[in-house]
Amino acid sequence: MIPSIRICIAILLATWTAGAVAQAFPSKPIRIVVPFSAGGPTDITARLIAPRMTELLGQPIVIDNRAGATGIIGAEMVAKAPPDGYTLLFGTASVVAINMVTYSKLPYDTLRDFQPLTPVMTTSTILVVHPSIPAKTLKELVALAKARPGEISLASAGTGGTLHLPIEMLMKSAGVKLTHVPYKGAAPAVVDVIGGQVSGMFVDLPVISPYVKAGKVRALAMASPKRSVYFPDVPTTKEAGYSDVELQNYYALFLPARTPPDVVAKLHDAVVKTVNTPAVREKLIGTGADPLTMAPDEFTRFLRADIEMWGRVVKAAGVKVD
After folding, report:
1. Which of 205, 222, 239 corresponds to the end of one domain?
2. DSSP assignment, residue 26?
């Protein structure tokens, strides 16, 4: 056979094989790594979208909880996973943006090591306290903390995360001393707040709203630009006089960098269809979240701007983890 013909055949075979592999995706279960403990808001949301994604992709979606170090353990695992579409990270602002500006040595770089896929939702953060705490407003809590320096303790899902930074913001803005108690995820922190082992916490609305409604915790303020339609009587931190204490969290999916574009496109299509499925959308909204999707390129630009924004916030608050 003429050498040039052999080369042409080899190229055609390689192209056909690559196309066949892409068309076959997915051919085995897909793992979504949640870098926080089971039962927390990130875990709950991942398990909410998994059944519909399973239907659309024709393969089981397995949720893998890898808690610890403010999401770093799970994120590093995905960053180092094969870029074949079978391992995804379900991250939050703390994992992909805040960690970037609070840790001087991080085993991953969000914009270098991940292929951003799309957000799934955004959510507001609310400040709650155990009913035994004699404060019914944020100003009353601040006054109590000033009268008892260090005695008021606020939990978080981990040092340097989205639930920790509002504590630092509040201490700086109000000139008050609070005791920060970090946990390996929101779920165990919420358990201890409900049990009265910790005074309170800033927490994402979806995970705490049932306990607020049941009277197991008392809502003091929304750390968001506007009041929540679910708790219209709870004022914002700005209304309480602390405009610097404000944030918006988001939950989103990421792939390892260098994942093939066709695999990215197929997964993105499945996630967007999942979020826009009426039943899924209704459940997300029912938790107090706002469903949101973006194109990968748009989401990458959003992340770059978000990392820069959190860099300014962290510098102003003087927060540094290491």
Report:
1. 222
2. -
Contact 70, 99 (CB under 8 A): yes
Q: What is the pTM of this model?
A: 0.80
The set of residues, in sequence order, having a beta carbon less than 8 Å from that of 113 and lying 6+ positions away, is 79, 256, 257
d(CA 237, CA 243): 6
Based on its alpha-carbon atoms, the radius of gyration of the chain, rounded to whole angstroms, reads: 22
Say yes or no: 116 and 253 in one domain. yes
Sign of the C-alpha dihedral, residues 206, 212, 218, 219?
Answer: positive
Q: What one-letter code names the amino acid at 129? A: V
Residues 118 and 128 in one domain: no
Cis peptide before 26 (omega within 30 of 0): yes
To the nearest 10°, report the CA torsion of 142, 148, 151, 157.
10
* CA-wise closest residue to 261 among 304, 305, 298, 297: 297
List the chain pLDDT tens, one digit each, 322 residues: 455 555 555 555 555 444 444 458 999 999 999 998 888 888 989 999 999 999 999 999 999 999 888 899 999 999 999 999 999 999 999 899 999 998 888 999 999 999 999 999 998 899 999 999 999 999 999 999 999 988 999 999 888 778 888 898 899 889 999 999 998 888 899 999 999 999 999 998 888 989 999 999 999 999 988 888 889 999 999 999 998 888 888 999 999 999 999 999 999 999 999 999 999 999 998 878 889 999 999 999 999 999 998 888 788 767 666 6
Identify the domain containing residue 94 by its residue range.
27-122+249-317
The answer to whether residue 22 is domain-embedded is no
Q: Please state whether 68 falls in left (phi above 0), alpha (psi between -120 and 50) or beta.
A: left
149, 177 contact by CB (below 8 A): yes
